[in-house]
């Protein structure tokens, strides 16, 4: 065939692309591909675009909004996926791509991955902090249980509770605990329980056992947040002992089964009775010991001298009083004698200074009409009336003359 013949019959780009498209899509109508996500983007349309790669190659991939909405985990760069889809050739760019219909993380299921990511998110917000956990009341009177009213969980709970403690009222708040819409009903039940007045003492949320998928509603974010926000202490009673749900982490108390929830929420009447009997025995024993000790003290007191010879104590006291009286009299006498001696000494001193003492020695005291003592001739004048006091009696005289004896 000549070169001219080849050129005279060329294919259009569109025709060639259409042939390639048919070939690829026919050859790879269903394919499983594993690889790592990179260059991930999700515009407002909701479709997901990214590259699926391994160590040596890569392929463009797209997941339309409908398929992406069914994923139970969030897509993102670095995620290692196993994808199922078909090969498509995108004509406007002339490139082929993998159209993914379903995907799951490689090495871990989609639910496990979603659970792990949500757990990390809520833990970072502090919803699982132990500091926020509240203790359960010792003797609750009003309990509500958000669960299916026809399930085995409520029957087991009530059976165990009635056997342990009868002094409690239980309100069942109906809610689906599995399948589509279960999470919304559980949240509504929790909120309704918090609106009840008078306020509940304890709120139980749970169901019987099941697979991870069956229990998934207790891992959904709205349920976890509703439990964490409850003003009533919450017991999570999801009957799945192996795996821990996020509801278990958010609740104040986790019970492995609804039956254990009944054991955790209320005391055992038998145990309380045994405890009371034990305390009664201890109280009786303690009182008996106190009585015996008091009796022994009374007996010992009765044998003591004050009770055995009460008159002897009175006689001793009277004797001691007499001794004290005698000592007081002697002390007073000594003080009087010392005082008398001091008074005599002082009187002698006063006597030696008294004018009367001078009179006894032959001297006299002369005063003028005003009673002023005459000491010198200048104190009187001729004609003055003077009074002279002697040892015995007085002499009244008139001054006739004044002589200066010093001359």
TrEMBL record:
Cytoplasm in keyword set: yes
Substrates-to-products reaction catalysed: Exonucleolytic cleavage in either 5'- to 3'- or 3'- to 5'-direction to yield nucleoside 5'-phosphates
Pfam families: Exonuc_VII_L (PF02601), tRNA_anti_2 (PF13742)
Key words of the record: Cytoplasm, Exonuclease, Hydrolase, Nuclease
Enzyme class (EC, first level): hydrolase
Biological process annotations from GO: DNA catabolic process
Known role: Bidirectionally degrades single-stranded DNA into large acid-insoluble oligonucleotides, which are then degraded further into small acid-soluble oligonucleotides.
PANTHER family listed in its UniProt record: EXODEOXYRIBONUCLEASE 7 LARGE SUBUNIT
Annotated protein name in UniProt: Exodeoxyribonuclease 7 large subunit
Species in which this protein is naturally found: Botrimarina mediterranea
């Amino acid at each position: 065939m000549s070169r001219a013949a080849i050129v005279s019959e060329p294919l259009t780009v569109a025709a060639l692309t259409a042939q390639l498209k048919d070939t690829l899509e026919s050859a790879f109508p269903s394919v499983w591909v594993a690889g790592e996500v990179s260059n991930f983007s999700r515009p407002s349309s909701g479709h997901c675009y990214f590259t699926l790669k391994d160590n040596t190659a890569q392929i463009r991939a797209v997941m339309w909004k409908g398929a992406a909405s069914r994923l139970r985990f969030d897509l993102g760069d670095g995620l290692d996926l196993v994808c199922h889809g078909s090969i498509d050739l995108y004509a406007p760019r002339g490139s082929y791509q993998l159209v993914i219909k379903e995907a799951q993380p490689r090495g871990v299921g989609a639910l496990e991955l979603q659970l792990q990511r949500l757990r990390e998110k809520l833990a970072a917000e502090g919803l699982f902090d132990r500091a926020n956990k509240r203790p359960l009341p010792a003797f609750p009177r009003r309990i509500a249980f958000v669960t299916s009213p026809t399930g085995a969980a409520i029957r087991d709970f009530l059976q165990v509770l009635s056997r342990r403690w009868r002094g409690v009222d239980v309100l069942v708040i109906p809610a689906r605990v599995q399948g589509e819409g279960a999470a919304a009903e559980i949240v509504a039940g929790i909120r309704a329980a918090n609106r009840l007045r008078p306020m509940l003492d304890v709120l139980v949320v749970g169901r019987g056992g099941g697979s991870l998928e069956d229990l998934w509603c207790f891992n959904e974010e709205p349920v976890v947040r509703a439990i964490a926000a409850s003003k009533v202490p919450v017991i999570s009673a999801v009957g799945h002992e192996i795996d821990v749900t996020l509801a278990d982490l958010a609740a104040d108390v986790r019970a492995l089964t609804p039956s254990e929830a009944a054991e955790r929420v209320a005391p055992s009447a038998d145990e309380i009775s045994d405890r009371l009997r034990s305390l009664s025995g201890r109280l009786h024993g303690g009182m008996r010991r106190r009585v015996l000790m008091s009796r022994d003290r009374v007996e010992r007191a009765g044998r003591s001298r004050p009770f055995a010879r009460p008159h002897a104590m009175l006689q001793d006291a009277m004797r001691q009083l007499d001794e004290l009286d005698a000592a007081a009299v002697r002390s007073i006498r000594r003080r009087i004698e010392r005082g008398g001696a001091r008074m005599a000494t002082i009187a002698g001193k006063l006597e030696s200074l008294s004018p009367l003492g001078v009179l006894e020695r032959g001297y006299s005291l002369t005063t003028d009409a005003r009673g002023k003592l005459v000491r010198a001739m200048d104190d009187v004048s001729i004609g003055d009336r003077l009074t002279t006091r002697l040892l015995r009696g007085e002499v009244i005289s008139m001054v006739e003359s004044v002589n200066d004896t010093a001359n």
